Fold Rhodopsin domain-containing protein.
Amino acid sequence: MLGAWLAGTMFFVVTLIFAESLHIGRHVWDIPLDYFEEIALLSWLAQFSFLITGACTKISVLLFYRRLVKDTIGAMWKAAVIAAIVFTAAYTFAFMLMLIFNCNPTEAYWKSFDIKYSRKYTCVDTTVVNLLAGIFAIISDIYAVVLPMLMTRHFSLAAGQKVALNIIFSLGILVVAASAARTYYFYEVGHNSDVSPMIFNATAWSQLELQLGMVCASLPALRVFFRLARSNQGFSMNRSGQGSRGPMSVLPDDPPDDGYQLRNVEKKHAKAQQTSVVAAEEETGSMSPSSTTASTRHLVKSPVVKSPVDYEAYNLEMLNKGRSRYSITGRERSDTIGRQPSHRLSQPAMDRLPP
C-alpha cells in the first residue's frame, strides 16, 4: 500500500495543478495555447501514476485474500487469487509500455503541442488504448469484489460477522462504478472537440476511483486499529479511575490496591500462627529464664486482622508496650532488662487498648 499511497499522492498533486494553474475544466478555447504542452505532459504523468496506484492497490487486496484463505480452502481458489494478481500486474505493465512508446520519440506526446517543435514524430491514436485500459480496470475491479465473496461463503462464521465481511467486500462496487464513469469520459476525450471539460471529468472520476480503492483496501486493517484504540481508551479510563486510590496495577496478575497491605498482614499472621513456637513467659517475671522448657512452649494463636480498625489497634498496642519498657528519662527500666519484647506472644485484644 505504500507504493499506492505515493503514486496516489502524485496523481492528487497533478489534479491540483490541472485545476488551479492550467484551467482544466474550462472550454478549450478559453485556455491559452501556451498551456497545452504542460497539460499534455501532466496528463502523461497522471496516467503513469494512475496505473501504478491502481495496480498496487488491487495487488495489495489480492494478497490479503491470499493470506485470508491460507490453509483453509482448496488449491483452486488459491490459483484464482494468484491468477488475478498476475492479470493485474500484466495489463498494468502492458499499458505502461504503451504509454511510453505511444509516440516516437516519447517526448512528442507533449512536445507536439508546441508550435515551435519541428522534430519528426509519429503517435498512435490513444482513443482505443484508453478504452481498453478502462475495460481491463473494470474487469479487475469486479474480479476483486466477487472473488472474496465466493471464497468466504463456506466459512463457519456467525451471521453478523459474515454480513459485515460481505459489506466490506461489496464496497468495491463503488470503485467499479467510478471506474466505469472514468472510462466513459476518457472515451469522450477522443471524440469530443471540447476536450478540456472531458479531461477534467475523467481526472475527477479517476481521483475518486483511486481514493475509494485505497480506503476499501485499508478497511481490514482498520479493525486492528479500532481494537487498539479501544484498549488504549480502556487503559486510560482504568488509570484515571484508580488514581485516587494509589498506583495502578499494570500486570494482569498484580493484586488490586484496595486492602492490599491488610491482606499481607493477614497472611503473615496466619503463617506465624501455623509455624511459630514461642516460649511462654509471665508478665510478673516470677519464672526464671532457666525454668522455661519445651513443655512450656505452645503455639500462639494470633487474632486475624480483619479490618483497618483492627490493624490500627494492633499498632497502638505495640507502641504502648514498647513505651512501657523505658522510663521517662529514656533508659530501659530495670525490671525489663534481659526480657524479650512481649508483643511476640500474641496480638493484643481490642479491649486491652489504652484509653
Summary: The first helix runs from residue 2 to 20. Residues 2-230 form one domain.
